Each structure stands twice: as C-alpha cells, then as structure tokens.
Amino acid sequence: MALIEFHNVSKQFGTFTVVEAVSLEIHRGETLVLLGSSGSGKTTVLKMMNRLVDLSSGQILLEGRDIRLQDPIALRRSMGYVIQGSGLFPHMTVTENITLVPRLLGWGRSRQQSRAEELLQLVGLVPQDMAQRYPDELSGGQQQRIGVARALAANPETLLMDEPFGALDAVTRELLQLELLRLKQRLQKTIVFVTHDIFEALTLADRIAILHNGRLEQIGTPTEIIRHPASPFVEALLAAPKKQLQTFQNALS
C-alpha cells in the first residue's frame, strides 16, 4: 500500500482552478519531487497533504485513511515541514526552535535537550556552538539545517519540503542537497520535495512528478522522464537542461 494517495484531487480558489484532477501515489521511503514552474500547483499539492490547504474535491489518503477525517493539528504534527528561508522563530534559540513540536507534544525538558543535541549533530552542526544562538546569528545554510532538524524533531515518517534551498547560493545549495541525500539514506524517511529546478529534481528524486497549469503531466523516475517525456511540455522542460549539459560537455572535450 502507498503511504500517501491522491485520487482525482482538485483545488479551486474562488473560480480559479489551481490543481485539477491529480492522481498519484507516494511510496513509503521514497523521495518524490514535485517539479514545475511558478503557478503550476506544486506547493498547493504539498500543502494539501497536511491540510494547510484543504482540497476542493477528490480524496487524499494517508496510510489508507482519508485525511479529512483526521484532526488537522495532529496531522500536521505527524509530518515534518520545511520551507524556503527555514521559517525559524527569531525570538527563540536554536534549541527552542528545534524542540517546538516536542514541547507541544509534552516531552520532558531533558528529552527535548537530548533530541536537540542529537539532531544538531545529525545535520552537521556542533551543539555546543549552536544550541543557544538565535537565527539572526546564523548563516542561511545553517538556518536551513536547523529547519530540517526542527522538521525531524518528533521523528515523523514523512518530510514535506517546499523549495527549502531556493534562496541559497549555488555552493551552499549543492552542499545541502548532498546532506539531504545522506540523511535520506540514514533515516529512510518519505520525502516530498517541491522545486522548480530540474537539476535539483534529478539530483534528489527517486521519482519526479511534473506539474503544469495544475495538471499532472508525468510521473516517473528521472531516467524514465528523460528518455520518454510524456508530453510536449515535459519535452520542452528537459530541452534547456539537456542543451546546457551538452554545452558543458563540449567545453570540456
């Protein structure tokens, strides 16, 4: 059974359709990248999974249960959520930011502290140096690492990541992409990752779901999508990266 299932899901804001008749499955332990240009509906698809946005029609199942029958707050706390710019609370220390959900879940202070130290080490930061700092004392890359640590704090099975590296410089972005791959291999989480960057999608994805004007154009492995684009839009989306890669290879030869 798939961990998350979309069955003919649509979302309208007033008379405007943002997502139209999307059906897909997200498998346990995989990284599914939602790829598309701005306005394609990818962030709306992500936010419907934890009910930050409620669907207009269709059905979303989590482990076979309709998410509309679940308490939205409990649902959100059961999924890690990482956004662009980290979303850290500026008045909280790093430790307080990381342990936000465990505090809401009633964890004891020593357990919270232990978990914060464990997660700081996991994302490649030194607890003694970072624990009592505030977000404005951190670099952009450090803030994003703290954002990932916070999303992992209550040990959720699923991580929802909405263009988390989009505002970073190219070098930091690549380092964090590699860090995410390392964490994925170690933790075996299910990750749904939104991006408009096709190179990032190809780097991170087990499968890619390509959205355009609110509709699902194609879903498949990176190899399947590159070799067998299912629509003119997908073919056009891949054309520029293929040309860039060919130009780079020619320059090296």
How would you describe this protein?
There is one protein chain. The longest helix is centred in the C-terminal third of the chain and has 21 residues, at about 230-250. The chain is globular. The model has no long low-confidence stretch (mean pLDDT about 90). Strands 6-7-8-3-9-10 form a 6-stranded mixed sheet, with helices on both faces. It has a 4-stranded antiparallel sheet with strand order 2-1-4-5, covered by helices on one side. The chain has 11 helices and 10 strands. Helix 5 crosses helix 7. About 40% of the residues lie in helices and about 25% in strands. With about 250 residues, the protein is of the alpha/beta class.
Produce a short descriptive summary.
The chain is of the alpha/beta class. The protein is 42% helix and 25% strand.
